[in-house]
Amino acid sequence: MKALQYRTVGAEPEVVDVPDPEPGPGQLLLKVTAAGVCHSDIAVMSWPAEQLPFPLPLTLGHEGVGTVAALGPGATGFEVGDAVAVYGPWGCGSCHMCAQGKENYCLRAAELGIRPPGLGAPGAIAEYLLVDNPRHLVPLGVLDPVRAAPLTDAGLTPYHAIKISLPKLLPGSTAVVIGTGGLGHVAIQLLRAMTAARVVALDLTEEKLALARAVGAHETVLSGASAAASVRELTNGRGAEVVLDFVGAPPTTTAAGAMAAVEGDVTIVGLGGGTLPVGFGALPYEASVTSPYWGTRAELIEVLDLARAGSVDVHVETYTMDEAPRAYQRLHDGLVNGRAVILP
Ligand code: NAD
Ligand code: ZN
Ligand code: ZN
User: Fold this and answer.
1) Which residue ranges traverse the bilayer (predicted)?
2) What is the β-pairing status of strands 260-268 and 240-245?
3) Would you say the pTM of this structure is higher than 0.95?
4) Domain 156-290 class in CATH
């Protein structure tokens, strides 16, 4: 089968032929319908060899949907032909976090060598994907698979981040979304669907801000040195109760801290290497800073329910497998509007 692989540290990903996978005991084989392209892969491909936590080659793609093509011996719960979304942050299934459905925070995954598809295990940008356990699958139902694929990360990750701060997102509150790309443009829609907060979106270009407005942002601000002052002005000096940073680079984390309200939440989702100091004088009183990773299986079910209700709709650009390297190049260059999705 064809697969998109990251093969050499620092090189572009390549479309290659690899053997068709066969499901072992308890596993399921999916025929992949669609797979999203996440900026985290760009981060992974920028790491030096000694920082890479898994061996190469790696088949990319951690946002996958497909139909069940075969069940390995003893696998149950699904039938051939079922349309499913893949819950990507695989864990051991039985530790204290996994027992709560929080496999994203599995306590034993590292020790057991369990890695998400596309982030250590073979990923979804391939004709077929092996899934280790039926609990990693959620039925898609009537959802369009192409627009549903990014919900498994670009939907789930902001959904989880927003849920942390729901008690603060009361009427009259302000939520800022920094970076309105794959995750950010879904975050805006989730904020509108789940809260009464006023949503302020920040990005680098007018084109990105136009998408932010189209998906529901009340206000948009060009990101830069004066962005924090603009948010203070929009909030009569109060600042934002919640700042969601989908860039996470030093200039955006600094701006995020500077635009937060007293008792505000600053949530750093982006992997841009930025950090925020805490302690008296560093941030507004009682501001909280957190950096969440992905989301729970239950939350993926909730996100798909929101999509079925029409509350969230991913803006997609589609690519064939042969065009997949170009999708990564465009994402790297900041040119993707919404989410790039590969149709293998
Ligand atoms: P993306 O490239 O689709 O979107 C990023 C957006 O940020 C783009 O629109 C870009 O123009 C904008 N941007 C870049 N620099 C900016 C700045 N200084 N100010 C304002 N906007 C700026 O990326 P994505 O796939 O949505 O991922 C976003 C980030 O989240 C990445 O760092 C990714 O690695 C990370 N991520 C984290 C998790 C997690 O679980 N924590 C999950 C998925 C992705
Ligand atoms: Zn991702
Ligand atoms: Zn676990």
Assistant:
1) none
2) parallel
3) yes
4) alpha beta
